[in-house]
Design goal:
Blueprint lengths: L1 H19 L5 H4 L7 H14 L4 E5 L7 E2 L12 E4 L10 E2 L2 H7 L3 E3 L1 E3 L2 E12 L4 E4 L5 E6 L7 E2 L4 E6 L1 H19 L4 H20 L9 E5 L4 E6 L6 E2 L6 E4 L3 E9 L11 E6 L6 E9 L9 E9 L10 E9 L4 E5 L3 E3 L4 E6 L4 E6 L1 E6 L2 E6 L6 E3 L4 H20 L4 E12 L4 E6 L10 E7 L13 E10 L2 E8 L9 E2 L4
Parallel strand pairs: 30-32
Antiparallel strand pairs: 1-2, 1-3, 4-24, 5-27, 6-21, 7-16, 7-20, 8-15, 9-11, 9-14, 10-13, 11-12, 13-15, 16-19, 17-18, 17-20, 18-19, 21-26, 22-23, 23-24, 25-26, 28-29, 28-31, 29-30, 31-32, 32-33
């Protein structure tokens, strides 16, 4: 029973805070108006020392949820009412729990601190070949494959290792042409013109052979070698088959280093930069994480998915990362400047508002609304509502359930404990609007609300209250303040009948 009483008391404090809002604007709640007693005491002390009261803000004279940092008037010409620092309640919404009961419940607290928040970005991707570490073997001449030295896809080759030997009539013709040109050059020593022509022919033939990538070899049979070390990914070469110039016969790639290309959403692009650390996980190796670095962020955006490709580089010395594998990427991001954070377990979120329980001194707890920012790991950014060094409750997670279960009952309890304010005034009946259920009255000054003499509309609890009243009739009336800007007339006394009311409607 004792624990239930504490739960109800703390949840009641949360309901009271949500129901009243303390009548303080968002900007004021982050300071002295946010329920920080020390701040209020300091401002009050400063005001006493100077002899001047500190104005926090100006509120709407009709009780509407509208404030202003500077003096102003409302639509009816009424001045906004100043709210002074020494008028703020010190213990609004505070619930007191005995230290012994706090220890029994196991309530733990944490300090609001400033830190750089790490916000992970998750994306899906695939393992791909490093395009800079692959090569294709495509002869520049026509011919036949006489012999294969590497016969299967997946074979590991060294740089310079023989792949296949060829026979090419085109190379045989070029070789014969070179030998004839060289012989003419030697035999034309007596004829300088013929010798010069033979020399030019021989050099042109050598250039042609170099362009065919056979170097200085002049012969129909050639052996082609692996241009890079790696693994054979594709092999179109078949022993005895004919090939055409430019046909790709081998594709070799070095898989000791691979890429992971992932798609990141447009909203996350501002948090990604080259060199950023990342972790890659694959379905093929559950429980194992591969370290990676952001190598490149592509300059294009896919308009259908609103995402941009991101390239990561991973070392693959044991060759377990195979091109085409599905990969999950998690990037570690965070703001450059530290920000105020609280543990995520400290936040009570009912979908409409977010509240933290402030741990004050001597077993006092105060619900305080907050405005949250980014989430990262076990922490969440608080942009408004708390200050560094304050303490929040992090282990009272049962309040989340109890707050939702007791909300309706606590709301009724609060209404019964705090009936709506009632005011009385003298004035004149002007008109009754049956369709809207409102009445127009002219009243004198009402000091309790700081209202001057004016004509305004009120809600009417019952049409019986104005039966028999003529426009211009003097009256004395009573009205309730049922909410911000909601004023309802519940009693009207007719002319010459100050002791007996003409009609009355009670609000229960």
């Amino acid at each position: 029973m004792g624990a239930l009483v504490v739960v109800a008391a703390l949840a009641a404090g949360g309901g009271y805070w949500a129901g009243t809002g303390l009548g303080v604007p968002a900007d004021a709640r982050s300071g002295a108006a946010a329920g920080t007693p020390a701040g209020a005491v300091d401002q009050g002390a400063a005001a006493s020392a100077t002899g001047e009261r500190t104005i926090l803000y100006y509120r709407n004279p009709m009780g509407l949820p509208d404030t202003s940092p500077v003096p102003k008037k409302d639509s009816m010409g009424m001045d906004y009412i100043p709210v002074y620092a020494d008028e703020q309640p010190d213990d609004a919404g505070v619930v007191r729990v005995s230290p012994a009961r706090v220890q029994t419940l196991g309530v733990r607290t944490a300090v609001v601190e400033s830190r750089t928040l790490a916000v992970p970005i998750r994306a899906s991707g695939r393992v791909e070949i490093d395009e800079r570490a692959q090569a294709v073997v495509a002869p520049r001449f026509d011919g036949w494959i006489e012999r294969l030295h590497v016969r299967a896809v997946g074979d590991v080759v060294r740089k310079g290792q023989p792949l296949f030997s060829t026979y090419s009539p085109e190379l045989q013709s070029a070789g014969e042409e070179l030998r004839i040109a060289e012989r003419l050059q030697r035999d034309s020593s007596a004829d300088p013109v013929a010798g010069e022509a033979a020399a030019r022919l021989a050099e042109a033939t050598r250039a042609r052979l170099r362009n065919l990538q056979v170097g200085g070899q002049a012969g129909p049979r050639q052996t082609l070698h692996a241009p890079v070390a790696g693994i054979v990914l594709d092999k179109a070469a078949i022993e005895g088959a004919r090939f055409a110039a430019g046909e790709a016969l081998f594709r070799i790639a070095d898989l000791s280093r691979v890429w992971v290309v992932a798609d990141v959403y447009e909203r996350d692009l501002s948090q990604i930069r080259p060199g950023q650390h990342a972790q890659v996980t694959l379905d093929a190796f559950p429980g194992r994480a591969f370290e990676a670095r952001v190598d490149y962020l592509y300059p294009t955006l896919n308009t259908s998915t609103r995402s941009t490709p991101l390239r990561l580089e991973l070392d693959n010395p044991d060759g377990v990362l195979r091109p085409g594998m599905f990969a999950r990427v998690e990037l570690e991001t965070g703001g450059v400047a530290p920000t105020l954070v609280v543990p995520a377990s400290a936040v009570i979120d009912d979908g409409e508002r977010q509240v933290v329980l402030m741990a004050l001194d001597e077993g006092r707890f105060q619900p305080r609304p907050v405005r949250l920012g980014a989430r990262g790991g076990d922490f969440v950014e608080v942009r408004e509502g708390v200050q560094a060094g304050e303490r929040v409750v992090v282990s009272a997670n049962f309040l989340i359930d109890s707050e939702s279960q007791l909300r309706a009952a606590l709301s009724n309890m609060n209404e019964a404990a705090a009936p709506p304010p009632v005011h009385e005034a003298e004035g004149r009946f002007e008109a009754f609007d049956a369709e809207l259920g409102s009445v127009t009255l002219t009243h004198g000054e009402i000091p309790a609300l700081k209202w001057p003499e004016m004509t305004m509309d009120f809600g009417l609890a019952s049409p019986e209250l104005v039966r028999g009243l003529a426009p211009g009739a003097p009256i004395r009336f009573r009205f309730e303040e049922r909410g911000p800007g909601d004023y309802v007339v519940t009693r009207i006394e007719g002319p010459g009948d100050a002791a007996t009311p003409a009609a009355e409607h009670r609000h229960d």
